[in-house]
């Protein structure tokens, strides 16, 4: 069995020449190989759909001239579900933005690779036993030489792209956006959003939107893309204020959170020795180095690196990925299409592709394209990366891991809810609480009621 070397100095991805453009090229080539299903379409000669492409790539570097670059998870998409459409059984993908699709696909990839590793197949992970206070549990380590990186065809929504959007926006489009926000901004009930802001829940404050309005006035929080000069704050999706509110934070905010907690999720933390951080992030359109650094980690530095936060539990940290610009163009980017078409509209579909899957998956309204409207989601129509599907796959992997190492499952493991399993990751949850208390107190959280399902719901 491969013995992992925990010496990070052996990682040599930094020595690879022009890696950022290689990551972008591999991502775009992977997208181009996919079938047309779910891709943006052209409507005549004047109108076209656009989307964002995001990929997580695995780099295995032995030396400067001995390395491999591979897309392991791909996502496209621009949509997310409003609060009124959320699912309590975990069977819908609530956030279908490209970065989130790619990240959730990566979690599935991790589980698949762990399964292969304890079956004797070579891969990025090493599986051993871990003994802690006489308790034996599976222990998964990332092998030396492996690293993970992300490509995004444009700066992520939220804080990272505010400057780029402001600079590229015409006076006419800005006027139309502001007119739409003024016309419809007050027609939606914002109570679900307000009640689920972390600070409000912590204070047990429930009021008729007054707290959220106060937070917006204080510059701590903003719905959508309004207020281009208000930088470094949390924002929710979607960008348009005349759209129904969601509980989804912007991709800039989520990437910043991943730079503290990792991209592996709370549940997978229970079998992984260390969090998995993205070593680099490659951006296409709307690139602004200062904005990206601020959005992804600099706005956290003052809070997470003051004396009181030195108690942030190991192995967690504020990770600073390298941020690169690529010259490679994605054909369905908004910037490219606006130079060719007079009308450019967002695509309503999302695409998921994971290394090892026989085919890609098209997601519409949180489930597989073609799912019958008005009928309950089931195993055939739910996405492979919805909470329930990933939870089920995790428990299968966890059980197989324990069996392979002759470690019996606990009696109640398969009866615990998704929420309870997340809470078992105590160090992860402690780190998350530190992040919310010190930096992101206005984070909108998913209510517990949407995570109280079990695998029996599958």
UniProtKB/TrEMBL annotation:
PROSITE patterns: A_DEAMIN_EDITASE. Its cofactor is 1D-myo-inositol hexakisphosphate. It is an enzyme of class 3 (hydrolase). Keywords: Hydrolase, Metal-binding, tRNA processing, Zinc. Its EC number is 3.5.4.34. GO terms for biological process: tRNA processing. Pfam families: A_deamin (PF02137). The keyword Signal does not apply. Residues 73-453 form the A to I editase domain. GO terms for molecular function: metal ion binding; RNA binding; tRNA-specific adenosine-37 deaminase activity. It catalyses: adenosine(37) in tRNA(Ala) + H2O + H(+) = inosine(37) in tRNA(Ala) + NH4(+). Specifically deaminates adenosine-37 to inosine in tRNA-Ala. Belongs to the ADAT1 family. This is tRNA-specific adenosine deaminase 1.
């Amino acid at each position: 069995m491969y013995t992992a070397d925990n010496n990070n100095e052996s990682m040599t991805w930094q020595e690879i020449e022009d890696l950022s453009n290689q990551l972008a090229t591999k991502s775009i080539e992977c997208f181009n190989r996919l079938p047309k299903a779910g891709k943006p379409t052209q409507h005549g000669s004047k109108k076209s759909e656009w989307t964002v492409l995001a990929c997580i790539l695995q780099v295995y570097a032995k030396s400067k001239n001995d390395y491999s670059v591979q897309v392991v998870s791909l996502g496209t998409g621009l949509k997310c579900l409003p609060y009124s459409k959320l699912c309590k059984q975990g069977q819908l993908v609530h956030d279908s933005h490209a970065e989130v699709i790619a990240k959730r696909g990566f979690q599935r990839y991790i589980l698949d690779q762990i399964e292969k590793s304890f079956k004797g197949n070579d891969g990025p992970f090493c599986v051993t036993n871990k003994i802690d206070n006489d308790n034996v549990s599976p222990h998964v380590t990332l092998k030396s030489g492996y690293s993970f990186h992300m490509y995004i065809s444009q700066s992520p929504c939220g804080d990272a792209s505010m400057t780029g959007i402001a600079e590229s926006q015409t006076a006419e489009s800005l006027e139309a956006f502001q007119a739409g926000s003024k016309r419809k901004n007050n027609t939606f009930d914002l109570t679900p959003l307000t009640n689920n802001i972390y600070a409000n829940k912590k204070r047990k404050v429930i009021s008729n939107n007054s707290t959220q309005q106060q937070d917006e006035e204080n510059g701590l929080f903003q719905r959508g893309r309004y207020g281009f000069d208000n930088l470094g704050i949390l924002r929710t999706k979607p960008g348009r204020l005349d759209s129904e509110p969601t509980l989804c934070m912007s991709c800039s905010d989520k990437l910043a959170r991943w730079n503290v907690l990792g991209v592996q999720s709370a549940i997978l933390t229970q079998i992984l020795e260390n969090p998995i951080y993205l070593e680099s992030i490659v951006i296409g359109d709307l690139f602004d180095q200062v904005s990206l650094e601020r959005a992804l980690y600099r706005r956290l530095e003052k809070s997470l690196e003051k004396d009181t936060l030195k108690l942030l539990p190991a192995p967690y940290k504020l990770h600073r990925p390298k941020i690169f610009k690529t010259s490679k163009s994605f054909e369905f980017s908004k910037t490219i299409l606006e130079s060719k078409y007079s009308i450019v509209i967002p695509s309503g579909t999302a695409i998921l592709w994971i290394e090892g899957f026989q085919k890609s998956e098209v997601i519409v309204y949180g489930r597989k394209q073609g799912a019958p409207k008005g009928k309950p989601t089931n195993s055939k129509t739910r996405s492979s990366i919805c909470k329930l599907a990933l939870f089920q796959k995790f428990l299968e992997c966890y059980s197989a891991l324990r069996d392979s190492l002759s470690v019996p499952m606990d009696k109640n493991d398969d009866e615990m809810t998704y929420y309870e399993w997340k809470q078992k990751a105590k160090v992860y949850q402690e780190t998350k609480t530190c992040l919310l208390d010190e930096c992101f107190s206005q984070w909108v959280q998913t209510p517990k009621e949407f995570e109280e399902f079990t695998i029996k719901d599958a």
